[in-house]
Each structure stands twice: as structure tokens, then as C-alpha cells.
Design goal:
The complex is a heterotrimer of chains A (177), B (292) and C (223). Chain B has 292 residues and is mostly helical. Chain B has ten helices and one strand. The model of chain B has no long low-confidence stretch (mean pLDDT 80). At the B-C interface, strand 1, helix 1, helix 3, helix 4 and helix 5 of B face helix 2, strand 1, helix 3, helix 4 and helix 5 of C. Strand 1 of chain B pairs antiparallel with strand 1 of chain C.
Chain lengths: 177, 292, 223
């Protein structure tokens, strides 16, 4: 039998309404292919996209400093260590936060990462009572409001005060400006 | 202009100035001339092939789900309790090297001679067996040699595997990946996070590490020869770490274990005085992982 | 849409004959299990290829998590097997697939041998097939070390010791495989490179040659 004839007729309108034998075989073959490819590859895809489906663990709070050491109206930089489990790599990297009390006595903490391009900001390095970024001259008010260059205010840490200690949690967008 | 007619289909032959010669397109060899029913590769034949493929795939997936890939404990070159065994398809070579006539001063025969001849003959089979006859029963020498090699490979593999099983039984060893799975299952049943052997107990600091009395006992009694000079134990040999042991056992339990032994650990009741055991268990009971 | 893109490409590259040749070539009755059930023995070559494809894919996915480093290798394998969903299945596929590919290849080789299909004019294809067999064994050997557990370590140590006892060049083979004096950090990276790049590269080239020759010469006729 020659399949080349079938090839030719495949392009001209088929007279019969029913599916041709060849079409049926082609569909079945497609199905078998899909089954084999799916059976083999789907577990691997699930394996690979796992980081996308991973639920973000709720941030735990880390003890940073005694409440009494936080000044009113003047931010102070405090370093603290967080416990980080990065897949099989467990480490305790150090992080920094600028913590102060506002006029109403509410404690808040700002992340030192500049919202412009991610350099580390400092307090009062050139401009009085402002956070200044050494890279492109971005600066921020004491509440973290962006004054220049940066597209957004400085991020905040979630803050919890317990038993006279300041605890910091996850980084959240600024809520003060 | 290489192509006069714009509608002409361009068929390059490596160089755009040379057109593919028209005429008979060479038809690949097929079997239409054979007696019987031949059929097209796609879709007819491939479909049959892939039906078999689907069955194999399902069986394969069932196997992988039913039997997770084994994983033992981290490599530890000082582990002497481990019985190494290669993958099953290397067992025949592994076994071959155990025989006296291919080891010692004849080892070259075992590693190069015999496998070289066998694999060389296999590689060059078409040049050794040059006859036109294809039926295996009409070429007895080639077939007999092949069957003989198969039989010997099977024999060697079986002997090697049986010996391994025998060794396991004699030494009372359970392969590590099985121990590990069982521990993980126990931990899961008791609702705890399974302790990962990937992270040894190095986070646990020793409490009162400079206690001279204790250090002297640890050395003289030989504790450190099994539990390690760093007291971290040997996960592979199922010797527990002494660091952080105070979290697991009380002073009384520790005294009991030191005095009477436990599992593979010998009793120290007659080697150490009650006072020494007291000092030691006191100290061990203090070995708790640093509180938060 | 698809058709016009295809036509656009076909006009320039004339690809139709390529796949037409593969798709339309006639397969003889004597290898077709639908006609003779015993012809299932002709499936083993195709199944070897199928399992090889699974091996390549699962291997590629495994390297998303695996690190070839003596400190982290075990931890990463442990992580991907026990912490990542479907990790034990993907690793299981690679682990059991390695055995299965050897089994299938073995059966395929026996089929070719006992049907005398390696005879003229197909000698070269037999030789290429045997080279593929050796490469598969090499892949099995180098892959065994990668999880860096005791089994991996000691089996590799024994394997290298065997290579060491080869007369004259054994010492050099050993140092080359170990990348140093002991089975350690450089051994692991070496085995990883050989397992993931060198051998699969050679394997793909040989597989291409194997299939080209089959297509060129056709399947050996009925007995």
C-alpha cells in the first residue's frame, strides 16, 4: 500500500463525513505522544516551578534592641541578625535598620536600602536631618519620604515592642508618607 | 541573477549559484518490495511502538513512586562499617576481581585482559563473525560464545550479590538508605521534623568544654574513640553525638547507659568508678543546645 | 497561521523532504508487533531511546537544585529529594531510569546479536551501538558519585582503585579521574563535568550517527 496517495487526498476536500483511518491514527498517535510527554515531563515541571508555588512564610520577629536605646526624633542605626534558611544553606546574615521614635512616641524602623538603585543610605551624611544615598544623591526625610531621584519612600520594617525590647519583622512598604 | 523565473521554487545545493539537479528525487530504501504488509512509520507504526512506550512509562512511574531513589548518609571516609557495593550492572566486573587468578600479581588480567577481550570481541563482533548466515542457530560458535558470556555474567552477578547479602547478615548491617528511610518514617509518625543528616550537630556548642576532670575521663575511658574527638558521633555508624545529649537524656539515663552500655556501646561500669561516672553523666546532662 | 509560517520556512529551506522521509518510510511487517507478536523484541531500541530522553530531561531538571561540591552536594540532594515536591519522583526517574536504560540497551543488543542484524552492511552501526553502550556505563559510573553519600564515595573509590591497577597507565588514569591525590572536591567536580557535559555530548553525537545509519540502511530484512 502506498501512503503517498493518502497524502495527496488529505489536502482535497474529503468526500466522506467520517474520519479517515489515517486521521484517526494520527489523532491517537498525538494522544499517545501527549500522554508520554506529559507523564514524563509534568512531574519535572512541578519540581522546577516549586519556588513559584511556595507559600511565603510569615516573617518572624527578631529581637533588635532595648526600647530605651531608641531616641526620639533622631534615627539610630541598629544591626541585627536574622536566621535565614536558603534551601540547604542556613545562615545568619546581618541586617541593619534605622530606628527612632516619632513625636507621639511611636517607634518605627526604616530599611537602609535606597529605593533608587539599592545602595545603602546613611543619616545626616551631607544634608541635615535627611537620609542620604551615597550613589546618586537621593535623599529622604526622617519619615523616609523621597525628596530627590528616588521613585518611592524608604521601606519600613514591621515593628513590635514587647517587654521593653524592639522586635523587627518583615519589610513592608512605607506607611508614614 | 541566478534565478530567472521569480515563481520558480529555489532549491539550494550548498551554493546559491548551483541549483539542485531536477529529475528523479532519490527515494529512500523501503520495504514495499518485501512480501507481507509494510506500513508507514508515522502514524501507523509509531503508534504501535508508542503503545508499548506508554505501558513502559506507566510501569516506570509506578516504580519511581513506590521506590524513592536511595540516599544514605553523607560520605565519610573514616567510616569503616560501610560495605561498599557498586551498581548492579558493574557487579560482574567487581566479582571477577575477587578471584585469585585475576588478582594480586595477575590483576592485569582481571582489569584489562578478560574485560578487554570480552568487550573488544563484542565491539568487533561483525568483523569476527563475518558469515552471511543470520539465524543464531546456524552460527553456533558466535551464539555459543554469547550465551556462555551471558551465563558467566549472570553467575558472577549472582555470586556477588549473594555475598553482599551474606555480609550484611553476618555483620548485622542494614544498608544506610534503609536506616535513613526508617528514621524519617519514625520521625514523621511521631510528628517531628526529621533530623536532616545533611546538617551535623555542629551548631550545638559544648557546655563547660574546659572541664579538666571530664576531659580526662573522656580520653582515658575511650569515649572519644567512638563518639569522636569533637564528640559529634558518627551518623553513618549510628553513633550518637554527645553534643546536645542533655536535651535527649536525663542524668539518670546517662548514668545507666554509661554503666551498662546500650546497643553497640560497651558497658563502662567496671572500667570507671561510680564517682567518675557521676561526674561524666553530670557533665553530659548539662550538654543542652544553647537556649534561644 | 501555522501553515503560512511553515510555508515561509519551507520555501527557503525546503524542509518537507526531511520529515517526509522520516514520517513516510515504510516499516516492514516482520518488525511490527501487530502482525507478529514476537516482533515486540524490535521495540527495545525505541524504548532505550525513550528512557534516554527521560534521563536527559530529568537530569537537566535535577541540576536546577544540585551543586557539585563536597560540602553542599549531599545537602542539595537531600533538599531536592525531601523538601521539593515531586523531588523524589524526579530523582527516582533519574535513578531508576539509569538502570532501566541499561536493561533496555542490553535487550536491544541481544536482539541485534541473535537476529544477526549486525552483519554486512551494518557493521558500523553495531560498533557505534557498542560505543553508546560503553558511554551509558560511563554515565552510570560517574553519576553514582554525585549524591556524595557513603555509597557514592566508596563505590567510586573502589572503581578508581580498579582503574589504578591497570598496568603502566593505571596511576595516571587514577590521578586524572580524581583530579588529585584523593577522592575529594576535584573528583566530584570532574565527575560532574564528565557526567553532565562530556559523556552526554558524545552520546548525542553517537545517537545521531546511529539513527542516521538506520535510516540510510533501513531495518535488516526478515530472517
Amino acid at each position: 500500500m502506498s501512503n503517498h496517495e493518502f497524502q495527496e487526498t488529505a489536502h482535497t476536500p474529503v468526500k466522506r463525513k467520517e474520519m479517515s483511518r489515517r486521521q484517526f491514527l494520527a489523532y491517537t498517535l498525538g494522544g499517545a505522544t501527549a500522554f508520554m510527554a506529559g507523564g514524563a515531563v509534568l512531574p519535572m515541571i512541578r519540581f522546577a516551578v516549586d519556588p513559584l508555588l511556595e507559600k511565603r512564610a510569615g516573617g518572624s520577629f527578631v529581637k533588635v534592641v532595648e526600647e530605651s536605646k531608641v531616641k526620639v526624633g533622631e534615627p539610630t542605626e541598629f544591626k541585627f541578625k536574622i536566621h535565614q534558611v536558603d534551601a540547604w544553606y542556613v545562615s545568619d546574615p546581618e541586617q541593619a535598620a534605622w530606628i527612632m521614635k516619632d513625636d507621639k512616641g511611636k517607634i518605627f524602623a526604616l530599611s537602609p536600602v535606597c529605593k533608587h538603585l539599592g545602595c545603602t543610605i546613611g543619616w545626616n551624611t551631607t544634608n541635615a536631618n535627611q537620609y542620604v544615598c551615597p550613589c546618586h544623591g537621593a535623599h529622604y526625610t526622617v519619615d523616609g519620604k523621597n525628596l530627590n531621584v528616588a521613585p518611592a519612600p524608604l521601606d519600613e520594617y514591621q515593628v513590635k515592642v514587647e517587654n521593653g525590647f524592639v522586635y523587627l519583622g518583615e519589610i513592608i512598604p512605607n506607611t508614614r508618607v | 541573477m541566478a534565478h530567472g523565473n521569480k515563481n520558480e521554487k529555489v532549491v539550494y545545493v550548498g551554493d546559491s549559484r548551483v541549483r539542485k539537479p531536477s529529475g528523479e528525487v532519490s527515494i529512500p530504501p523501503d520495504y514495499t518490495s518485501f512480501p507481507g504488509r509494510s506500513e508507514a512509520f508515522i502514524p501507523n507504526f509509531l503508534l504501535k511502538e508508542w503503545m508499548v512506550g506508554c505501558v513502559v512509562l506507566v510501569g516506570f512511574l509506578v516504580l519511581t513512586i513506590a521506590h524513592p531513589a536511595p540516599l544514605g548518609y553523607p560520605a565519610d571516609p573514616t567510616n569503616s562499617a560501610f560495605i561498599p557495593i557498586p551498581d548492579w550492572y558493574f557487579l560482574f566486573l567487581y566479582q571477577l576481581l575477587k578471584y585469585p587468578w585475576v588478582s594480586g600479581s595477575y590483576v592485569a588480567w582481571g582489569v584489562v585482559g578478560i574485560p578487554g577481550v570480552a568487550f573488544g570481541a563484542l565491539l568487533l563482533a561483525p568483523f569476527l563473525d563475518t558469515g552471511k548466515e543470520r539465524r543464531f542457530y546456524r552460527r553456533p560458535i558466535a551464539s555459543a560464545l554469547m550465551i556462555l558470556s551471558l551465563a558467566s555474567c549472570y553467575y558472577l552477578t549472582k555470586v556477588s550479590w549473594d555475598f553482599y547479602q551474606h555480609e550484611l547478615e553476618v555483620t548485622g548491617t542494614v544498608p544506610e538508605h534503609i536506616t535513613r528511610e526508617e528514621k524519617a518514617r519514625e520521625a514523621a509518625l511521631s510528628g517531628e521534623e526529621a533530623e536532616s543528616p545533611a546538617k551535623p550537630a555542629e551548631d550545638v556548642a559544648l557546655v563547660d568544654a574546659d572541664n579538666a576532670d571530664v576531659n580526662a575521663i573522656l580520653k582515658s575511658a575511650g569515649c572519644i574513640s567512638c563518639h569522636g574527638t569533637d564528640l559529634k558521633g558518627q551518623a553513618g555508624a549510628k553513633i550518637p553525638a554527645l553534643r546536645g545529649v542533655g536535651d535527649l537524656l536525663t542524668k539518670e539515663e546517662l548514668t545507666e547507659i554509661i554503666t551498662n552500655g546500650k546497643g553497640n556501646m560497651p558497658a563502662f561500669g567496671d572500667k570507671l568508678s561510680a564517682e567518675e561516672i557521676g561526674t561524666l553523666s553530670d557533665w553530659l546532662a548539662k550538654q543542652k543546645a544553647a537556649a534561644e | 497561521m501555522f501553515k503560512s509560517v511553515y510555508n515561509w520556512i519551507d520555501e527557503r529551506l525546503d524542509v518537507t523532504p526531511l520529515w517526509r522521509d522520516v514520517a513516510d518510510h515504510e516499516v516492514p511487517e516482520h518488525v511490527n508487533p501487530a502482525h507478529h507478536f514476537s516482533a515486540f523484541v524490535y521495540c527495545f531500541g525505541g524504548l532505550t531511546f525513550f528512557i534516554t530522553v527521560i534521563q536527559i530531561l530529568s537530569g537537566m531538571f535535577l541540576t536546577m537544585y544540585y551543586v557539585p561540591d563536597i560540602i553542599n552536594a549531599y545537602a542539595s540532594v537531600d533538599y531536592l529529594q525531601h523538601k521539593v515536591p515531586f523531588g523524589s519522583i524526579v530523582r527516582g526517574m533519574h535513578h531508576w531510569g539509569a538502570s532501566l536504560v541499561i536493561v533496555m540497551m542490553f535487550l536491544h543488543t541481544l536482539r541485534v546479536f541473535f537476529t544477526g542484524s549486525y552483519k554486512a552492511p551494518r557493521e558500523m552501526n553495531w560498533v557505534v551501538g557498542m560505543l553508546i553502550f560503553f558511554i551509558m556505563l560511563g554515565l552510570g559510573f560517574t553519576g553514582y558519585l554525585l549524591p556524595w553519600d557513603n555509597k557514592a564515595y566508596f563505590a567510586t573509590k573502589v572503581g578508581i582503585q580498579i582503574a589504578d591497577s591497570v598496568p603502566y597507565i593505571g596511576e595516571y588514569i587514577k590521578i586524572f579521574l580524581q583530579g588529585g591525590e584523593i577522592v575529594g572536591a576535584t573528583t566530584l567536580t570532574r565527575f560532574f563535568a564528565i557526567h553532565v557535559f562530556f559523556l552526554p555530548g558524545a552520546l548525542l553525537a553517537l545517537l545521531a550517527a546511529h539513527f542516521l545509519m538506520i535510516r540510510k540502511q533501513g531495518i535488516a530484512g526478515p530472517l
